[in-house]
Amino acid sequence: MSDDKLVIFDTTLRDGEQSPGIALTPSEKLLIAQQLEKLKVDVIEAGFAASSPGDWEGVNLIAKNIKNSTIASLARCHPDDIEQAWEAIKVAKDSRIHVFTSTSQIHMEHMLRKTKEEVLNDTKESVKYAKKLCENIEFSAQDATRTDKDFLIEVLKVAVEEGATTINVPDTVGYATPQDYLDLLTTVYDEVKGGNEDVIISPHCHNDLGLAVANSLTAITAGARQIEGAINGIGERAGNTSTEEIIMAVKTRQDQFGVEIKAETQEIFETSRLVSKLTGYPVQYNKAVVGKNAFSHESGIHQHGYLRNTTTYEIMSPDSVGQEAKIILGKHSGRAGFKDALDKLEINLDDDAFNNAFDTFKKIADRKGEIVENELRAIVGQVETKNNAAKLISVSVNSKDAFASASVTLKVDDEEVTEEATGDGMIHAAFTAVKTILKSDATLIDYRVESITKGADATAEIVTIINDGHLMKQGRAVSTDVVQGSVESFLNALNK
Hints:
Layout: E1 7-10, H1 26-39, E2 43-47, H2 53-65, E3 70-76, H3 79-89, E4 95-102, H4 105-112, H5 116-133, E5 137-142, H6 149-161, E6 166-171, H7 178-193, E7 200-205, H8 212-221, E8 226-229, H9 243-252, H10 254-257, H11 268-279, E9 296-297, H12 300-308, E10 326-327, H13 335-344, H14 351-365, H15 373-383, E11 390-400, E12 403-412, E13 415-423, H16 426-438, E14 443-451, E15 460-468, E16 471-479, H17 482-494
Parallel strand pairs: 1-2, 1-8, 2-3, 3-4, 4-5, 5-6, 6-7, 9-10
Antiparallel strand pairs: 11-12, 12-13, 14-15, 15-16
Helix pairs in contact: 1-2, 1-11, 2-3, 3-5, 5-6, 6-7, 7-8, 12-13, 14-15, 16-17
C-alpha cells in the first residue's frame, strides 16, 4: 500500500450497532451499506456474523450486494466464529476476516480467564486458520492501550507472521490521550510493521474522554494508514471515532496530514441523516460537519463577515459535505444579516421602514430563538406603513373575575403619557387607555389573532380593523405577547 493513501474503515454496522437500543434489520443494514458505498468508504465492517442468525443474514446480504467496498466481518479467536464470518462474506467481491482477542491484563484475567501464553497461541492459530480461508486478514488486540507494551508487540508480531495484513491497535475504552497514542503507535510502527509494505497499522478509538477523533488523527502522524470509525460517532458507551469528522479533517488539513482518501464527501450529510433515521439516534445540533448548526451563523459580527466572504467563518464549504449554509435570524443578528434575509425574500424597504422593521425584529428576537420566514414577512407587513405619531412604551394588564384593568404608556410627540382604564377584558381595557391618551373615538370593527409559528414561544400576527372618522383602517403587529401585540396593532391602525 502507498504511504500517501488512507483507508477509511467504517464500523457503523458493527460497533455502531452495539449502541444501546439499536437493532437494525438486514434490509436496514443494506440501505446503510449502500449509502456507505456511495460515500466510497474503503472497508465496510458489516457485522459480527457469529453473534446471531440475524447478524449473519445482514452480513451476507451486504456481501452479495456491495461491489465497490471491501466487506469485513468480525470474529473471535474461535474456529466457529471464523468459519461463520467467512461463509457470510465469501460471496463479496472483496472480503476481509477481522479476528480479535483481548490482550490487557484486566481483560485476560477477568474476561478471557487466559494466560499470556494462551492468548499468544489463540492469536497464532486463529490468524493462521483465517488466512487459509481469506487473503485479507485484520487482527485486533482489544484494549491495546491498557496492555503491557512488550506483550502487545509480541502478540502483533505473531499476527503478522501468520499473515495478518492489517494490525489494529484499539483504544477500546477510550483511555488514551493523543501523546499516549502517538508513543504507542510509533512503537508498533517501528517494531511490527517496519519496512513491510504489506502491513497496515490502524487505530480504533472510543470517545470516553472525548478524544477519539484527536487520537485517530494523531495515529496518522505515527504512520497509521487506516482509520476506523462510525457515522455520527455512534457506538459502545460514548461512541466511536466519527467517520465523517476524520474524512473532513484529512481533507481540510492536507497541509498537516498529507494523505489521500477517496471519499465522496458530498454524500456525508445524507449518510448521517440515513443512519440517524434508521438507528433512532439524533445528531446533536452542534456536532461537527453534520450537525444542524455546523454551518449556521447567528451572531451579527459573524454574519457580517460571512456575507462579505464565506471563508471568514467557514473552513470548509457546506456543499462539500452535502449541507447548506444558514443565516439564522435571532437576538444576536445584526443589520447585515437582517438585510440579507429581506433580500432573499425580494423585499425592498426605504431607510425608515427598514429601521422600524429591524427594531421590531430585535424586540421579538429577544423573546424567542430563531425568526423564520413567515414571521419576517409579518414584521415587514406591520411596519411598512407605520409612522411614529404614537409609540408604545409599556402595557400592563390585570384581570380578576369579570373585572379587567390596563395601564398603557405611549410616547406622543416626544412625551411619555400614561393612562389607566378598565374594560370588559384585558384587550378592551388596553384599547380604551390608548384611545384616552390619543383622544380618539375610533371604533373597533374587527380583531384577529393568527399564530405564525407553533410551540410555547409561538409568534402571533394580530390584525385590527377600525373605523376612525368614517375611515376604515387596518393595523398589524407581530409579537409573542398577545396583549402587547394587540396594542401595537391598534396603534398601527390609528397612526395611519
